From TrEMBL:
This is Glycerophosphodiester phosphodiesterase. InterPro entries: GP_PDE_dom, PLC-like_Pdiesterase_TIM-brl. Residues 2-239 form the GP-PDE domain. It comes from the Bacteria. It holds the Pfam family GDPD.
């Protein structure tokens, strides 16, 4: 059965990458959550998508220039609606403790892309995953494929997934060169035959970001291992309807 990963939590209905968004994903029946991590100035792992706080908080500046304590002082909910005033930027460990309690899957996206280096982020993330005993429930993904290869060199077992938007030739073979085990393509990054072939050879496909009902139904019927969506409730309802 196709798993439902809630993209940044239930990002279509709640402020992304907040505990409110993750709790909503759990409430509506998602199998797991997807989240993003950056490294703070004091070496902590902050859960937020952008490299700056400008879009999703009442602050300004780059994540790398804040301590975790300084980030925690920002309001990460009011930008969405006043109902979520006071939501904060979570620390990765905070979310993982909750994931363990709720018995969910988690997809951790490393945001060390473009000009962001974040030395040691791969090792730090793995330490947190192991601290909470979540390796079997975790997928680590990134557009930084060098970083993913670093994850594989540090851990030979954890599920690693390449994120990509382009139409790659035989992406399952490319993924192997990095030691990656799964594919997280943009929704237009693979055609139907490629998806079905990858799944047949044991290479899980989890496309993003699958929000429209027609798209959700298509990828479930194709047999994708999972989909990543901003609207997990919508996806769960459709999956149930298809399985009847």
């Amino acid at each position: 059965m196709t798993k439902i990963f809630a993209h940044r939590g239930s990002a279509g209905t709640h402020p992304e990458n907040t505990m409110a968004s993750y709790r909503e994903a759990k409430r509506v029946g998602a199998d797991g959550i997807e989240l993003d991590v950056h490294l703070t100035s004091d070496g902590k792992l902050a859960v937020i998508h952008d490299e700056t706080v400008d879009r999703t908080t009442n602050g300004t500046g780059h994540i790398k220039d804040f301590t975790l304590a300084e980030l925690k002082e920002l309001d990460a909910g009011s930008w969405f609606t006043s109902e979520f005033s006071g939501e904060t930027i979570p620390e990765l460990g905070e979310v993982l403790a909750w994931v363990k309690q709720e018995k969910l899957l988690v997809n951790i996206e490393l945001k060390n892309v473009f000009y962001l280096d974040y030395p040691g982020i791969e090792e730090n993330v793995l330490q947190e995953v192991n601290r909470y005993g979540l390796k079997e429930q975790t997928v680590i993904s990134s557009f930084n494929h060098i970083g993913l290869n670093t994850v594989r060199r540090l851990d030979s077992e954890i599920d690693c997934a390449i994120l990509y938007s382009e139409k790659l030739y035989q992406p399952w073979n490319y993924a192997k060169t990095l030691g990656s085990t799964s594919l997280h393509p943009h929704l237009y990054g693979m055609n139907d035959e490629m998806i079905q072939y990858a799944e047949q050879i044991g290479c899980p496909v989890r496309p993003f970001t699958i929000n429209e009902e027609q798209q959700i139904e298509k990828f479930i019927r194709l047999g994708c291992s999972a989909i990543i969506t901003d609207f997990p409730e919508r996806a769960v309802i459709l999956r149930e309807a298809i399985s009847r």
